[in-house]
Write a structure and sequence with these properties.
90 residues, 4-stranded antiparallel sheet, 2 helices, alpha+beta
């Protein structure tokens, strides 16, 4: 995985993650396949995605990945997160 170097992008992603504390199950969209049980929400315009899982019993949001959506690329955030889940790292 690559690090997000731009501090402004980091701040916007962090703000979006913080906003997930309010009704995380109503935000984003549910994912399927290897990412079933997780949700995805856009951050910093259309380029970045935050992949997370929320719990209804308590307000707990576990952000598991954040990165650029780049369909067809090996560094696409969905591809990277799916691989980490298949390897049992998430």
């Amino acid at each position: 995985m690559t690090e997000i170097a731009d501090r402004r992008v980091q701040e916007k992603i962090l703000t979006r993650m913080t906003d997930l504390a309010n009704d995380p199950e109503l935000q984003g969209k549910p994912l399927g396949g290897d990412l079933a049980g997780y949700r995805s929400i856009r951050a910093v315009g259309q380029r970045y995605r935050i992949i997370y899982r929320g719990q209804r019993s308590t307000v707990t949001v576990a952000v598991v990945a954040a990165g650029i959506r780049k369909a067809g690329s090996r560094v696409d955030i969905y591809t990277v997160a799916g691989k980490l889940i298949r390897l049992g790292l998430l």
